[in-house]
Design brief:
The chain is α/β, with parallel strands linked by helices and about 200 residues long. The chain has helices at about 10-20, 40-50, 75-80, 85-100, 125-140, 160-165, 175-185; strands at about 1-5, 25-30, 55-60, 100-110, 150-155, 195.
Length: about 200
């Protein structure tokens, strides 16, 4: 299979690209690197698909979505909603563009996420992740030509916790998270969210 991995320079994206590259041809895209894309920019998505080939992709995986903690009382609407364009709208736009570029029976896998429990500043993250997972469930009924749509919901990743100076035992190794993405690409799941790590 020929698989496009968006966000391939990140911790999860790199692990996903490496795992899939053991068995497939992988095109690695990110904001930095030879194949560039910014999921928050629709024109960048158009340029990405024009550059990686039209109609010869078997799967698209998006690991580029992320968002920080945003307090509910953030004074600026623009700052409060800053994660919405990339994580939710950007991934929906990615799906819409992938539909006409994927081979019959292809797949798209997105990234949602979760916290162990609500913490201050996590309300927007909960809203975006729940919205994305609801989108995957509903949009799966609209996909043509046998194309499948799923999401992976990772919790804390061990390598990220190490970088943040937090207890790594609370996280799942990136390689284990990557296996869930590989299962979504190589399996037959459709309209599902695959959860990784302890809830």
């Amino acid at each position: 299979m020929k698989i496009l991995v968006v966000g391939a320079t990140g911790t999860i994206g790199g692990a996903v690209a490496d795992t899939l590259a053991e068995r497939h041809e992988v095109v690695r895209a990110s904001r930095r690197g030879p194949v560039r894309v910014d999921v928050a920019d629709p024109a960048s998505l158009d340029a990405l698909f024009a550059g990686v080939g039209d109609g010869d992709l078997d799967a698209v995986v998006c690991c580029a979505a992320s968002g920080g903690l945003t307090p509910l009382d953030t004074p600026s609407d623009e700052r409060f909603w800053s994660g919405l364009d990339g994580k939710l709208i950007g991934q929906v736009n990615l799906v819409r563009r992938a539909l006409t570029r994927l081979r019959d029976g292809g797949s798209v896998t997105l990234t949602s996420g979760r916290f162990t429990e609500p913490i201050p500043g996590s309300s927007l993250g909960y809203l975006v992740n729940a919205g994305l997972e609801a989108f995957v469930c509903a949009a799966a009924t609209e996909l043509p030509r046998g194309i499948r749509l799923n999401a992976v919901s990772p919790g804390w990743v061990r390598e990220t916790l190490v970088t943040l100076g937090m207890d790594p035992s609370l996280g799942t190794p990136a390689a284990d998270v990557a296996r869930a993405y590989a299962d979504a690409v190589e399996g037959d799941a459709h309209g599902r969210t695959l959860t990784v790590g302890a809830v």
